[in-house]
Task: inverse folding
């Protein structure tokens, strides 16, 4: 059996835009959805929608770039890992609504895989989250993934130690199941 593209991190030579678009495609997400009034979510195989407030719109764009840089997946454990990464670095601009989602997802991931979520929390110790840098989003998209990882003070291949697993509703899951 050959390597899946999810077995390796997004290449450092790609632009962040290319990696973000690949991330969105493998998860069934779109750039247009960033501006929708409601955003799709799922947990334990149940799809639902949550309000896409202005703070949420801004946070989810940067959250997705954190996925690109770290390599964490979008299944419940992967979201727990990325959320622990974000909690460790602080959520000052997220607001109560977004921060509560991040904390809830961190706790869910911790229940499912405490070692992986704790490792993500620990791995974030010396990193910088995107919201702390105040760099325009379009400028971030024009960087390479290697430049983004360096900016965030991440290892060359990100933080993930496992292949990216996808959320239950991802189209790539239907193809590989």
Result:
């Amino acid at each position: 059996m050959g390597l899946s593209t999810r077995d390796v991190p997004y290449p450092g030579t790609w632009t962040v835009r290319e990696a973000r678009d690949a991330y969105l495609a493998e998860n069934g997400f779109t750039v247009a959805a960033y501006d929708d009034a409601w955003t799709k979510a799922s947990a334990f195989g149940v799809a639902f929608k949550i309000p896409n407030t202005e703070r949420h719109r801004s946070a989810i764009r940067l959250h997705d770039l954190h996925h690109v840089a770290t390599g964490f997946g979008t299944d419940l454990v992967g979201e727990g890992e990325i959320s622990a990464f974000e909690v460790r670095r602080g959520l000052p601009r997220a607001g109560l609504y977004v921060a509560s989602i991040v904390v809830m997802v961190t706790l869910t991931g911790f229940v499912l895989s405490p070692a992986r979520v704790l490792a993500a929390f620990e791995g974030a110790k010396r990193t910088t989250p995107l919201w702390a840098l105040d760099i325009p989003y379009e400028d971030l998209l024009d960087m390479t993934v290697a430049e983004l990882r360096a900016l965030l003070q991440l290892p060359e291949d990100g933080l993930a130690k496992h292949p990216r697993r996808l959320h239950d509703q991802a189209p790539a899951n239907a193809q590989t199941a």
